[in-house]
User: Fold these one by one.
Assistant:
Number 1:
Amino acid sequence: MALAQFSVVTRRRFLKALAAAGLFAGGGVGWLAALRGCAPSVPGLRCLGDQEHRTLTALATALFPEGGAFAAGAASMDLARIFDGYLADEDEDRQSDLKRALLLLEYGPLVYDHRNVTFSHLEEAERLAHFERWGTSDELLRRQVSVAFRKFLSLVFYDREEVWPEIGYAL
Amino acid sequence: MSAIVDVSRERAESTTVDVCIIGSGSGGATAAWELARAGKQVLVLEEGGDFVGGALTRRDGMYDQLYMERGGRSTSDLAISVLQGRVLGGGGVINACDVVPIHDSVLRHWQKAYGLSDFSPEAMEPFRKAALDDLSANMPSESQLNENNRILRSGAATMGWRGEVMMHNRVGCVGLGKCLVGCMVGAKRNPRMVAIPNAIAAGARILLRARAVRIDDATRDVKTVRVRTLDPKGYHEQYELLVRAKLVVLAANAVASAQLLLRSGLGNEHVGQHLSLQPQLPITATFERDVELFHGIPQSYAVTEFEELATDTHGLGGFRIEAIGGTPGIIATVLPKLGQKGKEQMKLLPHIAASLLLVPDAGNGTVTVDAKGRVQIAYAMPEEQKKRYRDAAKAAAKLYFAAGATRVLIPTAIPVVLERLADLGAIDALAFEPATTPFLSAHQQGSVRFGTSPSTGGADPSGQVYGTRGVYVLDSSGYPSSSSSHTMTPIITTSRYLARKLAS
């Protein structure tokens, strides 16, 4: 389910993006890790790590916030775990590509906006605005990552039965 | 031994048969029926599982099981989603049931431009009729047209544009509206329900969850197809078995058939070239009244005013506007807004009408394989084609406003929102850069096109792949240009025609 599309973030393209941002010449790997910080432990994941789960959850809750037009939102759904389940059944190359895509997204504010903060630490509105800029970026890589995540998360969010009455849908 | 063996659950052994057919969709199932009926010992290999009745849950989650790459196949740049069935019965299980036979003008174009005199309208006529019989082709009744399709018809009538209710292959449809994830009531008279049972009755056997990964000995009397079995969900390869056959028939779709030839090092420089994706661009319109595009037959009306049946360059041309419906998840994937605005957008779902702008192309794509044998699809869209999408979007917008829409949306990354006719000029700015537009392809054709010599095609007019002896393509891979706006009926037509020749 849209997972094949994560193969866009090859190791080469990932390193190129980081290098372009000058991150290897800056504070080094330790500084990057410190900036990212610790993520809460999530038991039972099959493929994603805690950090990756946090990044994806931060994205899902920005894309599908609680309240507004209807009550349901991603915060109570753990869409990242659904993604983890799908990813676990993909081949190792695709898993690696996806993890790089999540890492790039996490460091997106640093790489592309030159801010000393990572995606998961942004406020919800900032996360949404940051991700929306990826979708309209001049850089193909960012647009591709945007398309892939948006499609997957939209598909699984609106496949949830608790959302259907809110949007006037029934089987 | 059962005629259908799921090798993810029941161990299969290597075997020898007369004919090994790779793919069980419109091309493979029809060929299996014809060749088994002619007395050949036929074995069909299908990567997917068998889904009928309640196994088809009507949920978006079915994309995972019914479509290639779990529904995620796309061009390498993510510009176009490539929808391809991976299930017993192939694309006919998950299509919108449109029955649009191959037009005489297309066949004449193939004769004139590619020298394919075998495919004359006269030669094809009995096979077109047979295909319509297979499909129980019929016209939807007036009551079967849902509001989404009626809006399109109403708008076309107001504009004075030509359009038509399309024939379909439903019998006993109850209007569930989930055709793109299979029909749980079995109303589709598709290859799964017609050709497959007939092929089995004639003696054919089928292996499910069986992936053909290589063809060896392609110039010898007996070819060897290397098959890797998959797990019950089709995610991982398990063990290998060999199928030895005098004839190998590729009918795995224009992407997968070319992929297998390339993985096997077979064929000439045309293999993998000239791929037509016939991409379609979604467009939506908002109405004050209820539309509920998710109920009833999703696609039954087409605006044909701008369709050209014969262009000099690539046969079919112009564009069509066709209504479309779907499940909420897949609809949400093409709508551009996110966050609270995205929720507001989906809250309006019952009021949204949608259609697809179908633009026949000129075979601008390629299929290649990487070092691990995985498929890579590239597609370059020329400016002439982009202009037709812009023209189509303007026409659709005019139509929707004529039908009473309050807003029209072209769901690009920076959405084009039109609230009045005066806004149409905004469409001119659309550049369709990769990964900005939710193009989708449901009619892949032409990656091993028929040619009268190896200098013009990858397979000869009988379907035999150049450079092989007894390896045939009997699916849409052979088409030198787009066969139709909807490929199920043409594939059944030409597969039977070529399989009957092969049998004789």
Note: Confidence is low (pLDDT under 50) at residues 1-6 of chain A.
Number 2:
Amino acid sequence: MSHYASCDAKFTDIECLVTALNEMGLTNVEVNEKAVVLVDYKGHTRPEKANVVVRRQHVGGAGNDIGFNTETGQAIISEYDSHNSTSARSPQAKQHGGYNVRWIAELKERYAVTVITKQINKLKAHGRIIRVISDETHGNNRVLTLKV
Amino acid sequence: MKIVVKNITTGKANLKKQVMKIVINKTTGKICAMANDTVVEILSNVGHVSMKRASDVEWDDARQQWIAMEKSSSKIIARGHNRSNVIAREVAILERNLL
């Protein structure tokens, strides 16, 4: 008997999250030990707090700060930024029409691959024989093939 | 008691290498794979892992062999006298369904 394992990525690994954000064109990422307040497009503080932050000037246009709470693994993105793509700094946000669910899905994909690679390297360091033998795209899926 | 399974032709311990796939849906960001200990070990660092039964492996008394039945369709997807081989075949078939 077999089981399907499924997983919804949570942004809890700061190092991997920053790598994924950099890959998505957001290279100015602020990392704070404790969660800090986010700021809106006018410079006013918002009620949400986050410890990984892309400040509004690096989000693009009249954007608000984008934040990630690595305790909960959640992304904090304003309604405006989820629809605004014209001046977005991330090429993927331009492509997907804003920092929306499609953009988050692509960030999750890149984040997951980074975490999986990191975890495989950890297992290797502990003497386990495991490697990625292919990383391919099949239609709508990215497929990592592992040999253990 | 320690049991070591040895290859009868070489006499070496049977340390069969396993190939597995991890599939990430680019539209939703959801990750799926056929469950095993290594997959769970890896994915538990990515996020919350959920499990869903994919198949049943039962002894077919009439035919005197093992059968693997897909849970969602009740279709027999593998059969044979060697249980391990039946499980290996069903995993390969179910893994293709992930794509």
Note: Chain A has five helices and seven strands.
